[in-house]
Amino acid sequence: MIGKYFITFTQFNIMDRDPGIFYFLYEGYAGFELVFAANNLIRFNTRTVGFGKAPCRSLENLWTVVDLDVEDLDPEKVDLLIIPGGHPSEIINDPKMKGKVSIFLEKIREIDRRGGKLAAICGGPEWLATAGVLDGRRCTHSQDNPAKAFEKAVFTNEYVTVDRNIITAQGQAYAEFAVEMGRQMGIYKSEDEAKADIDWLRDRK
Fold first, then answer.
1. Could you report the per-residue pLDDT of 61-97, keeping only the tens digit for each?
2. Which residue from 1, 146, 157, 160 puts its CA 20 to 30 A from 9's CA?
């Protein structure tokens, strides 16, 4: 829970059998779209994954540690993969990144086949669309000129869209996205708690 009880690391005993929660980081990712989601999931052990294990620079020009190379990501251990916005097309269409991108897209497909949760915000859903897991599925995003990969997806233009195991959001809905991550991982005792967090994040008195 966020709200007035802003979570700190000391509030929870980290369990050995935490769900497998991973944040995908790539060059230029929008860090602000992850901050509140990460805080909402702070009671769990989480890891970052990227194209290699070198530190990754965010849109805000902050360098972030990457724990795991995409090649070493085991889809069987992924309960939730969270993908922030950025400019995926620049990486997806980079010939030098073709091998790494192909590996990551296959990991996404396998997570989807196994029923793992896939969450993406702003431009992040392009990774899901390129992997083909949005074909015939409802989704939302913040791309003014959607990538061709979205052609078979059903665009809702909602702040947040949940279609079975796939959660997508628009960039301005980072607060709603954070709360939805909490819902998905069962941190709220009631929907009133979830709504209270949104009100706090949006400064609704």
1. 999 999 999 999 999 999 999 999 999 999 999 999 9
2. 160
* Whole-number Å distance between alpha carbons of 40 and 69: 24
**What secondary structure letter does DSSP report for 27?**
T
193 φ/ψ angles, rounded to the nearest 5 degrees: -60, -45
Any bridge partners for residue 21, and if so which?
A: 46, 80
Nearest residue to 79 via CA among 122, 120, 22: 22
pTM comes to 0.90
Q: How many residues does the chain have?
A: 205
Q: Secondary structure of the chain: what % helix, strand, coil (to 5)?
A: 40, 20, 40
Distance in angstroms (rounded) separating the CA atoms of residues 153 and 13 = 40
Reported as a single tens digit per residue, the pLDDT across 109-154 is 999 999 999 999 999 999 999 999 999 999 999 998 889 999 999 9
| Contact between 155 and 134 (Cβ < 8 Å) | no
* SS3 call for 40: helix
What residue has token string 């070493």?
Answer: 72
3-state secondary structure of 156: coil
CA-derived radius of gyration, the chain: 16
